[in-house]
Every structure is written in C-alpha cells, then in structure tokens.
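Section 5: illustrative case.
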C-alpha cells in the first residue's frame, strides 16, 4: 500500500455512498491511482444492503455478462488480507445449487453446455450421489445439482468496514450523515450539496445503491431502478450439518450454516422498501414460504426455531444487472449502483472498476452490458 496523503490535501474524487461498492471504490482510488477520495454517506457506512445481506460470495449461477467480473472479484476475495489487511470474515466453501427434478437437472445441463462453449469451467454438474456426499442432510427427492468450488461467504458489515478502514489508512476521508441531494458541474469541478454542506472535486463516483437513480436523473440519465427489500431469517444454534452454501434451481432459496451453528435462510422473498424513510417492513407470508422450502429440502429444519428476521433496501434493475460505467452525458462521472440483489460478491471488483474508470476512463474488464445507455 502507498503512503497516506496529507490530511490537508483536497479530494481528487467524491464518492457518493458508503456501502461495499463505495468503500471499495475509495480504497482502489488510493491504492491503484494515488487519488484521494472524499466518501459521503447519508447515514453510516454499511447501514444498508452491504451491511445487512446474506454474505453470499457466489460465482455460481451468475448472469452471463457478470461472469468475468464475478470471477475477477472472487480472486480478490481470496487475497483480501494481503490487499486490505482484513479477511472480512471470508470463508472459502462451495456453493451448491440443487436440482429437485429431472426438469431442474435439464436446466443445469443446458447451462453447463452454455458455460463450456464460452470457455468457463468454474461450475460443475453433480450427480445425486456426489451431491449427497456434500449435503448429507438433503431430502431424498433431490436428483443432482451444480457446484462452484471456489466460492464462499463473508461477514457483510465487516467487509464494508475492512474496505473503508483500508481506504482511510491510505488517506481517504469518510463522512457519515452527509446526504448528497444535488450534483452540479461547474467548470472543471463537480460540486455536491446537501443538508451537511457542499463539497467539490474534479471527479465523481455514484455508488449510491438503491438511491443511485435519484442522482443519475439529475444529469439527464434516469433509469428504471426499483427499490426492493429482500428478507432474511436466522435460526437458533444447532449441531453442524451443512458446509456449503445452498441454493435451488427452480425455487427461491439461499441457505447456509455459520460456524456457530446458526442457519441463515434467504432466497429473495421481498418485504416492503421505503427508501425515503430508509426503512423496510417484513412480509410474513414470504418468510413462511421461504421456511417451507427449507423444510422440504432439509427435513431436519422442521424443529429448529427462528430467532430473528430482517431485510435491507436493494436497488433492482429490470434486467437484474447493475448500472456500471461512465455517464454518457456528463464528464468525469462514473456509476456503480443497482446491483439487483447479488452485488455483495461483486463489491471488490465493482469498486476497482469504478476507480479505474474515474482515474483513467478505462477498465480491462468487459462492462458494455452494464452501460447506463441501455435505458436511453
Ligand atoms: C437482505 C439482502 C441479502 C442479500 N444477499 C446477498 C448475497 O448473499 N450475496 C450477494 O452478492 N449480494 C447480496 N445482496 C445484495 C448486496 O447486498 C448488494 O447488491 C450490495 O451490497 C450493494 O452494494 P452497494 O454499495 O451498491 O449498495 P449499498 O450497500 O446500499 O450502499 C449504498 C450506500 O449509499 C448511500 N447513499 C445513497 N444515496 C446517498 C446520497 N444521496 N448521499 C449519500 N449517501 C447515499 C446509502 O445510505 C448506502 O449506504 C443482498 C441484499 C440484501 C438486501
């Protein structure tokens, strides 16, 4: 890591949003380009999706344009201690998708053919017997699955904090309770303002998660982002029975057991998101469906008590991929938001890409599919 900047140095770039993507951007701006970031966060870093998610670090089942980015991000997850001095609670464990019927297995086979034709080998098919070796407690109706062996999970709030602290050690300034309400270009500078004051820098990155569209609209680039509230449940501690993170092929489930024995249950069932008040409301019907799927797949879960449920606010795009790339209307402005419920794993690389674009206008990864121009 390079030497910190003097505290008096003015920021080279403003980063709006203190989630994993904003924190990773601030870190990479300093570490790769020697640029000082001023990171502005409306509440506190990690308050929203990045700090409250399921912690799944998954390349398995990625939408095709995301695969090169997701694989590059995975490499970073595996070497976080040397990069930022913190492992962010990352644990290497397989992610498995189970097939509950021949139709599910056919879906997984078709994907396997597609991936191999594109040269990807990070996902492998599993027959019923091998799957049961990985998941001894899975229901007998499961007929096979797919696995990504290099995946894992991490501790969300710790990951945000790890990147934020590493950025601060390199001289980035982080301000909490600093809501950006307006952005304006004046001459060669970006000026941002809100109830806490104004700030200026030549470069601007918008990593504002479910609020990103409010800012892009100000430079004439509105996008159809939908704020949603994915929900999660956690159980009491039980005897360890599950090492991999588990998902399903045709139903919604994300399921894992922590080393302390608690089991995290998610799968994308939505509560109600109110991004103006920054609050969510749980929908118990969705939680009940989520639990039913779990009990069908892992019958031993029928007697386990749920301890807590919560949800977070996530920006979801209609095509389920983020807005990642330069503004097409304004100079020195880069977007990285709308990660559509699977952006935690992408945080390390998303921030690196935004930082590279802010600093040099270029990235070595394919990002055309994520252009804000697709909504023009
Ligand atoms: C319950 C749940 C479970 C999930 N599980 C997974 C999972 O297992 N794996 C996975 O890969 N992904 C998962 N996700 C998705 C993942 O959490 C998000 O895609 C990712 O964290 C997005 O990061 P971000 O930095 O873009 O957004 P955020 O973490 O939302 O950060 C954006 C920040 O910007 C701030 N902000 C917004 N507007 C302004 C403004 N005007 N001024 C100042 N600050 C502003 C917000 O306060 C917020 O802190 C899950 C999401 C949820 C909600």
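Designed sequence:
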């Amino acid at each position: 890591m390079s030497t910190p900047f003097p505290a008096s140095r003015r920021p080279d770039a403003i980063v709006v949003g203190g989630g994993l993507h904003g924190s990773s951007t601030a870190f990479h701006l300093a570490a790769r380009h020697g640029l000082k970031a001023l990171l502005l966060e409306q509440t506190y870093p990690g308050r929203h999706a990045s700090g409250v998610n399921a912690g799944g670090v998954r390349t398995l089942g990625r939408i095709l344009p995301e695969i090169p980015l997701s694989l590059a991000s995975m490499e970073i997850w595996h070497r976080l201690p040397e990069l930022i001095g913190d492992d962010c609670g990352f644990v290497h464990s397989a992610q498995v998708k189970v097939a509950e019927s021949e139709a599910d297995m056919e879906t997984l086979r078709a994907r396997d053919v597609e991936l191999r034709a594109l040269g990807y080998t990070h996902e492998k098919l599993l027959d019923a017997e091998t799957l049961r070796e990985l998941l001894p407690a899975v229901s007998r109706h499961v007929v096979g699955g797919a696995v990504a062996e290099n995946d894992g999970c991490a501790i969300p709030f710790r990951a945000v904090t790890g990147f934020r602290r590493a950025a601060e050690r390199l001289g980035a300034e982080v301000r909490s309770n600093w809501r950006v309400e307006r952005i304006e270009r004046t001459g060669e500078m970006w000026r941002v303002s809100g109830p806490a004051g104004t700030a200026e820098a030549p470069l601007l990155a918008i990593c504002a998660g479910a609020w990103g569209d409010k800012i892009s609209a100000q430079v004439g680039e509105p996008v159809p982002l939908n704020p949603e509230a994915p929900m999660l449940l956690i159980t009491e501690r039980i005897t360890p029975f599950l090492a991999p993170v588990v998902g399903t092929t045709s139903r919604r489930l994300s399921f894992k057991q922590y080393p302390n024995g608690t089991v995290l249950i998610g799968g994308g069932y939505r509560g109600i998101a109110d991004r103006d008040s920054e609050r969510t409301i749980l929908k118990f019907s969705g939680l009940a469906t989520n639990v039913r799927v779990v009990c069908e797949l892992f019958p031993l879960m029928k007697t386990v008590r749920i301890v807590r449920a919560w949800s977070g606010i996530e920006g979801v795009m209609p095509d389920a991929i983020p807005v990642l790339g330069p503004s097409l209307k304004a100079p020195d402005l880069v977007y990285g938001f709308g990660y559509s419920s699977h952006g935690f794993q992408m945080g390390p690389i998303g921030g690196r890409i935004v930082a590279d674009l802010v600093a040099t206008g270029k990235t070595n990864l394919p990002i055309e599919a994520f252009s804000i121009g697709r909504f023009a």
